[in-house]
Amino acid sequence: MLKTIQCGELRPEHSGQEVTLAGWVNRRRDQGGLIFIDLRDRWGICQVVVDQETAPDAHNHASNARNEYVIQVVGKVRMRPDGTSNPELATGDVEVVASEIEILNAAKTPPFYINKEDSIDEVVRMKYRYLDLRRPKMQRNIVLRHRVIKFIRDWLDAQGFVEVETPILFKTTPEGARDFLVPSRLQPGKFYALPQSPQQLKQLLMVAGYERYFQIARCFRDEDLRGQRQPEFTQLDMEISFVEREDVIQLNETLMRALVKAVVPEKRIMEEPFPRILYQDAMEWYGSDKPDIRYDLRAVDVADLAGQSGFAVFVNNVAEGKPVKAMRVPGMAGNLSGTRLRTVAAELEDMAKAAGAKGLAYMALPLEEDGEVRGPVGKFFTVDQKLALFERLGAQPGDLILFMSDRREVVWAVTDALRPHLAKELGLLDPTLLGYCWIVDFPEFLWNEDEQRWDPSQHLFTMPMPEDIPLLDTDPGAARGSQYDMVCNGFEVAGGSIRIHDRALQEKIFPLIGQDMDSAREQFGHILEAFEYGVPPHGGIAWGIDRVVAILAGEPNIREVIAFPKSQTGSDVMSGTPSSALPAQLEELHIKLDLPEEEEIEA
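^ thats the sequence. predicted structure below, dont judge the formating
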């Protein structure tokens, strides 16, 4: 080994010991006869002192070293002189007096600072990702990811789970997103698909009798990207036999709580046990099935009051069966002048219109008891109607009340758009708080107007709630699925369901989603046949590891916790991926390209 101890491990108890260190020059300060080097490795930073008088050769090498040079240092650990300790470093009480220094490798000047948390253009970061990954923040994130996965593996092992790897090359099947296809050289004209998830395979492992399976699985989906989505991602995949919905929820909640307390004890879980919210309530209150519950800002039904007001829009909408919702925004109007209030209201209305609404009405409550309610709709409500409205919302002096009325889906979209914006404006986003909840009782199906058929709200293997199975024959849209999502701080971090384990019931699903049985047998014949050999009741869940780690790290984008992510266009600008194949490779695969004239796409 070129080192006897890690840079970040040095402590006062090592004083007097001779050590050999190796790492990168994080910073160099030349004071003539003395040179100070902050030496960095993955474990941390320590200070190295090089004295020209006692170690002239080492001093000469230190004079030539620059930031990001890789060097080896031999020296003796000592306590730092009085008044020179650095409390910001774990090694800040000691330093190494160098007797020997060797430059192991020189380095060009990096395109950005490694030793500073400066704002860096993301394209530059992606191009030089191997340098970006040296930065302390990125190293903390990647190590946190390692610790999360290790904890999960150890915890599940102690619970009797077996980790089983499933194939990366599998069969193309419809699961809600495009498959990545891989041509077969040995079977020309046929293709593998990269798995969107191991869904079918983990169910087959239940048929195989493993009962408690998990896998840290790589998954692939060819879909448009955004901050919380990558073409390849990692999930904790889990399946359990002989369970009901409550069993899976309890086990996974216990695992998540244990994980947070062991790996990020500085974070606080908002509420234990995690609240259970019905899907319909989540949509009505928060406009989303993945609500951030760290703050309230609920949409409250006020149709009965608004429908009796003198405001024609509300009256007509209520008569047409459309909702009227109101949201109390605490203290937002209190100190605003009339001009500023109108400006804020206009900005919020623009957000509502971007979400599909025609407008956004408001009332601003005065700070004084005898003050006037401001806002254009206030005059359409009687005093008694206003008092009833304020009581229902729990409104206080200085609050702003926003009104939303349109088709139900539009009201949901507006609520979902306004809540996080208002929470940020009001300073309600506590970064140390983890607001976990479970969303349950999803609809089994959603109506696809374009295709005139039902789509599974999760996937086609989801078991309907037992009491709702008869509805498949009479009213499929009213059937609830045995689905459950774990949500944290506005993101779905895990989702699963109890699975269908009866072939007859599974075959009933296919025509509902517009698939004939010949096509179903072609795509799913292997799993339908397996269902004839004794299938235990089973259910499972999948965690989005990238999202879980990003939330625990306090990062807004999953690219910050993935070592080598893709850009928004699915490109790796560091390596130039995707790239063209050689003609000989295409010929081997019997592939001919038919590209449009404008084939170049910017990364």
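The chain has a mean pLDDT of 94.
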